[in-house]
Amino acid sequence: MKRRTFIQSAALLATSGLPVVAGALPAETENPGKEKARVRAYRPLGKTGIQMGDISFGAGRLSSSALVLRALDRGMNYIDTAPDYGQSEDHIGEALRKAKGRDKIHIASKYCQPMAYQAGKSHLQMGSKEADYIAAVENSLKRLGTDYLDTVFVHAIGETADFEAEKNRMLDPEMLAATQTLKKAGKIRFLAVSSHGPNHMERLLTEAVHSGHFDYIMPAFNFMKFPKVPEVLKAAKSRGVGVVAMKVLAGAKEGGMKLDPGQFEQAAFKWALSHEEISGLVITIQSAQDLDLYLPASGQTLSAADQRVLDHYAALHGTNYCRTGCGECLGSCPEGVDVASILRHQMYFEDYGDEKRAMQAYATMTPNASVCEACADSACDRACSYGLAVSAKLQAAHRTLSMPVAA
Questions:
Q1: pLDDT at 26
Q2: What distance in Å separates the CA atoms of residue 67 and residue 235, rounded to the nearest whole number?
Q3: Tell me: the pLDDT tens digits for 360-379?
Q4: Three-state SS across 52-110?
Q5: What is the CATH T-level fold of the domain 3-308, as seen in this structure?
Q6: Which of 39, 185, 291, 404 is most exposed, with the fewest beta carbons within 10 Å of its own?
Q7: Do residues 287 and 67 lie in contact, with contact meaning Cβ atoms separated by under 8 Å?
Q8: Distance of CA 256 to CAs 92, 152, 280, Å?
Q9: Exposure string (b/e) for 76-95, b if CB count within 10 Å is 16 or more?
Q10: Cβ neighbours, 10 Å, residue 282
Q11: Are the beta carbons of 177 and 215 closer than 8 angstroms?
Q12: pTM given for the model
């Protein structure tokens, strides 16, 4: 980077209120004459007072602190992590020690344990005590090396078909008591809730909005058709509850599409951000190249060309993509197979590269899709209004996800 360019960039950061990264960032000086894509728009996150980058950092499978520093340097100011995201919190903590301006970096983590899928669940469940919730946050703070979390999430509501049980976990009095204790101690600022279904996503998030306990919500939301989510968004906006979107890439399948790098992703981001109720979106960042691919969409509007890209994607993959949070087929299987959860784990394996975690999650499921091989009814196929060959997909998922898990 030229000295003049460096000085101008430093001045921009200083006046914008964004965190300033201390020290050099390796490999960011390639193509010295080319300006790096960065966050160009910030939106209010409900009534929190946070102005979050419209495209924000998802820290699942985070491999280094250097990537966090690069993201901060590009204007990202909201980081989504969790204790069961491998070494994510540790890497973020290392980055925080090198960056200045902790009060400008907004960190969200989860009421969660670090061991992935212990007994099938890493997120704290009903029966957890106030002390368990407090301990989860305090352990996150130790790994992050910070005094407070901006937000803690009750994460992944709607994983089971029992609406009342899911609602009770979301509004667990022990969790709410812990939240108040942690807020009074200055260890958390805000409470949020997330859901990617497959059960009752819209209904549960509507309950969350009306409960008055949550500062913002995080639903799965993308261009592939979530007909009831807009109602949730309107309810949230009317009550000053922020909305952060996830799963905006609809499975991230690009086979059969001849596009420029980043063209599909940017179109999908702009579609989500075209909804005024959305405060921002979280997307997993795994490399500096992801920043180059994704950030050009920041602050941009959805064009007719973008919509054509999304329509083309839907035409190619509409009968293959299991809509996150849909749940239409649940209850159709006489054996009680949790169709949507199995296909979500398969999506993580195939499309997101999270093979080990997907197989660990599948290994805890009873019944699993092994029973589908002898099924002659295929009621799940008939239950899917999107035309997915559900039974065949379940059998393929079983073959993939039941392979031995590497140590």
A1: 47
A2: 36
A3: 788 888 888 888 888 877 88
A4: EECEEEECCCCCCHHHHHHHHHCCCCEEECCCCCCCHHHHHHHHHHHEECHHHCEEEEE
A5: TIM Barrel (3.20.20)
A6: 404
A7: yes
A8: 36, 39, 29
A9: bbbbbbbbbbbbbbbbbbbb
A10: 23
A11: no
A12: 0.84
